[in-house]
Design brief:
Blueprint: E1 4-6, E2 9-10, E3 20-21, E4 28-30, H1 36-45, E5 47-49, H2 56-64, E6 68-70, E7 78-79, H3 86-89, E8 97-98, H4 105-108, H5 110-124, E9 134-137, H6 141-152, H7 159-166, H8 180-185, E10 191-194, E11 205-207, E12 219-223, E13 236-247, E14 250-262, H9 275-278, H10 282-285, E15 302-304, H11 305-314, H12 319-348, E16 357-365, E17 371-377, H13 387-404, H14 473-476, H15 482-491, H16 496-499, H17 510-524, E18 529-533, H18 537-545, H19 553-565, H20 570-581
Parallel strand pairs: 1-4, 5-6, 5-7, 7-8
Antiparallel strand pairs: 2-3, 9-12, 10-11, 10-12, 13-14, 13-16, 14-15, 14-18, 16-17
Helix pairs in contact: 2-13, 6-7, 17-19, 17-20, 18-19
Length: about 600
Amino acid sequence: SRRKRQPALLPSLFPGVPAALNFAAEGEFLEPASSPVLERTRRQLLKWRLSPATPGVVRRVVARSGFKFLPKSDEWLGYFGRHMKPAEFSAIREYQKVNHFPGSFTLGRKDRLWQGLRRFRVKYGDFFDIAPATYCLPDDLLALRQAWEAAASNLDTSISAASASSVSSTSSFSSGSASDANLDCSGSPMWILKPPASCRGQGIRLLNKWHQVPKRRSALIQEYINRPYLIDGNKFDLRVYVYVTSFDPLRAYVHELGLVRFASSQYDASDPGNRFAHLTNYSVNKHSRTYRPSQQDGSGHKWSLQALWTRLRSEGRNPLAVWESVKLVVLKALLSGQAHIANQVRLLCRRSCCAHELFGFDILLDEDLRPWLLEVNVSPSLNTDTQLDNRIKDAVIADALRLAGFRLPPGAQDPELSSFDSDDYDSDEGGSGGKEKSPAGPAAELDIGLPPTGRPSTSGAPRTVAAAPPSSPSHSSSRLADDERAKRAFFCAPSWRRRLPRLLDGPLTPRDLRCLTRAVDEYQRRGGFERLAPAGGDLGLRCLSCCGGRPSYSSLLLHAFVSRYGHAGKEGINLLVAGCRAGLHMTSDTTDRQLWSPPAGLR
């Protein structure tokens, strides 16, 4: 009786667009659908592909929402488990969703994350100075030694500046360089060693002697931030939950709930051997004798973000400014991996909406409350060892699954549940995404349960059969109507910056309408998430300029809409409602029509 009622379906703001499935957080339950027939149909089709790696909190949210768990069936709507192999993505049906993007390890591996950030910093300057200087060994061994020598000699030049000036150097050590013995006995600051693909603090240790540096094996050596912001003498970091529904166009969110993880010993920069003073990972510190579980939020060695903001406010700090700077760091990191992941989705997935992902960003605040990105986790821990963990992670998962926009597959007879393809690939540029596939094509020959070796799969990834043809071939065809193709070519030209403000001046095309209605409906379902992208105004324009080339048409379209109308402004919604009432969003892409022509005064 104390549980809060929630509708089973989340209706669209727009006529002719089907509802999305709702998910119940802790303390909530879903009411039956509006009619017995509709409810019976809904429950018959609510099927979830269970994996050994599916976290308990995900199982509870999904079960609470009326899904049946099917360990071996091919007829499922959702999957939440380990990362899939590239070949497995191509056979996922258009109404199925998996919780990882192909290629997301470009963010999730420490070495690839740093390499991407370094490329962007070289190309776009200090705008992407969001992580401590990092060296990927053995390739960057020379650059590391030169930076180490600079620090050991007490030069005024900072370590990061030395890194930037030496990273491209390939010359041998100079005859005047310091000896290994001198570097070992010098007053060098601390560095931190990390394996490139580890998690939960495994293999991480602090270094202050040159002989401790591995010279031949793969490793990351990162500048250690030795002046972190301390609370009661303890170091801490932030676990920020970031959810991405699409990388092209980039639609990304950050949740207002998150965790603050404390080191369990007092911070002491002179004692590099004390892992409990320097590492903030819960998986490390829970083994410390001094670790204190949180009896209430704001006590012990794990807090919520809200408790941290309260503490900062009591110390005369501005938590809102800190949060805004954290969100900007997250957005920049996503931009550094956007092009690669979007390309992988275009090559491997039938629909971009078949993949979504929850990331865990680890952020450290220095003594000036400047945020520094430490790493990105593609499978953040969703263990719920404490009430605080359960409260935060249950809410994050429920909000993320609502945002995902699950819909029932083709075959649901009620118009409210019928499949609607609102996907918006720039499919005229090629790639398998958005193209109609025949069941007899390559996907039909894949056995997703078997890896290339022929041994049974142990990854926990879902086994799927060959994907059926898309439910709306006209919407997913790679062939565009002439006016749609002309509009994309016009606004994606080299002069796109000058033309962008006029993108919404003419009539919307069917694909425009489908892209925009999907983005606005998604925003309405965000719950505790805040939208990072698309961004409007100057920030959004700068993000478009950092996409590694000319931005895609759909990215330009969303930026233009958000800049003019906001994420869900009344005027913008009315514009889209009018188009949907006219049935434009259901119009075939290949209809012989001429709706759009270049705006007057633009060439």
